[in-house]
Amino acid sequence: MPTLGLGRVPALPDGFASPLAAELAPRALERFLRYVQIDTQAEYGSETYPSTLKQLDLCRLLEAELREIGAADVELTEHGYVFATLPSTVEHETPTIGLIAHVDTAPGESGAGVKPQVVRYEGGEIRLPGDPTQVISPAESPRLADHVGHDIVTTDGTTLLGADDKAGVAEIVAGAEYLLAHPELPHGRIRIAFTVDEEVGKGTDHFDIAAFGADFAYTLDGPHAGAVEDETFSASSVKIVFHGREVHPGYAKGKLVNSAKLAAEMVSRLPKDSFSPETTEQREGYVHPTGLSGTDAETTVRFIVRDFDTAKLDEHVAYLRRLAEAVAAEEPRAQMTFETRRQYLNMKDHLSAVPHVVEAANEAVRRAGLEPDPMYARGGTDGSRLTEKGLPTPNLFAGGHEFHSRREWVCVSDLGAAAAVVVHLAQVWAELP
Fold first, then answer.
1. Mean pLDDT over the full length of the chain
2. Beta bridge partners of 135
3. Where are the domains of the chain?
4. pLDDT above 70: residue 156
5. What angle do CA 150, 151, 157 make, to 5 degrees?
6. Between vectors from CA 417 to CA 411 and to CA 423, what angle results, nearest 5°?
7. Which pTM value belongs to this model?
8. In CATH, what class is 234-344?
9. Phi, psi torsion values for 373, nearest 5 degrees
């Protein structure tokens, strides 16, 4: 399958949603290819904010690029957020809308040395050249079939791509650049924010909503073209620490209490055919161990807990507590500590009170030449926390697929479509009474 060099922008294929999407795709692609090569992988358990200081490498670049395209009020905050403003081009009062994406990538796969490739997809499987065991397959990624004849971006198979959410970042900058270059287009005041540490549930920990100054906002952090998400999981994290009794293994009979075995025993008691990401779908919740680390003296198990129903979320946390207590109780010399933290809540209840915010997004998607696809997200976004805190923030598509894996990919035409939605969304809000 032919591969295009990074210095070239591919010929635009048929199938673009609109002329504006086709016009914006090359600029969005150019930025995306640049951004994904900057390692911004977040880290669980870090004591710094952001959790990895390398995230600031991209933040500094975005600060410079926003100044370069003519944005106002460009700021890189002490916590790593990048803020900017597109001034209004109309004389009448309009709501201020926000456009938000996150710069960090998921902890589970490497974000270092990303080697993006642009390929013309002609059907079938895509075997990635850096690791031939990594295969993008229509059987596992059904929407691949919608992009036959299109240019798509993948990695070489040795890292994730970073479409989550550098696609959203590139689309917002490309859309903002177009609006600033065309002041004749009517739109109200627009605020831009690029956040850090979304992937570890801390993206809005220091986000000052009042200073941001938006009435409503949108994250571009969703899946396939046309998706509009107004509902997410509610989420908690759980940290369980088993404390054993350390003794020299040569003299340990009757004395050693191995905390690693206690932790492994707890994980082994989780249901095998339910209650996990790999066995659930649609509106089913789960508990998911994300890491197990330590020594025979002390071992930590970390979980994420998810459900659309917040009451059920609390029940899932209570289940993990009972399970950990039962394992610890079988070894009286052991100790166990249990910590839980609420990460975000389902945004649906809050967004239901402002349906026009979602309808404006639907209209922008239509103007970009797509049919809105209302969805609920089996995940969370910065918008989940922001909505809970009082800034209604549904989630729009960024176009990525197979998030958090080395098989992650995005279609070039969808990068353009999302950038076009940014432009149309600005105009829709300028027209609202």
1. 94
2. 127
3. 3-232+346-431, 234-344
4. yes
5. 125
6. 150
7. 0.86
8. alpha beta
9. -115, 95
Three-state DSSP state, 240:
strand
* Six token digits for residue 5: 């060099």
Phi-psi region of 82 (alpha: psi -120 to 50; beta: other; left: phi over 0): beta
- Give yes or no for a contact between 97 and 217, defined as CB atoms under 8 angstroms apart: yes
Active site residues per annotation = 104, 198
Cβ neighbour number for residue 161 with a 10 Å cutoff: 31
Answer whether the bond into residue 50 is a cis peptide, omega within 30°: yes
**Cα–Cα distance, 262 to 244 (Å, whole number):** 8
- Beta strand segments in 233-285, E: 234-243
Contacts of residue 248, Cβ cutoff 8 Å, sequence gap at least 6: none
The token pair at 100 is 């938000």
Question: What's the token pair of residue 259?
Answer: 């905390």
What tokens were used for 61?
């670049």
Give the burial string for 337-374 (b: 16+ CB within 10 Å, else e). eeebebbbbbbbebbeeeeebbebbbbbbebbbbebbe
20-30 per-position pLDDT tens digit: 999 999 999 99
| Structure-token pair, residue 4 | 């295009």
DSSP H or E run through 282: none
Among 146-155, 211-220, 329-338, 373-382, name the one with the lowest average pLDDT.
373-382
Which amino acid is located at 140 in the chain?
A: E
For the domain made up of 3-232+346-431, give the CATH fold.
Aminopeptidase (3.40.630)
C-alpha–C-alpha distance, residues 400 and 166, integer Å: 10
CA-CA distance, 41 to 106, in Å (whole number)?
6
Single-letter residue type at 242: F
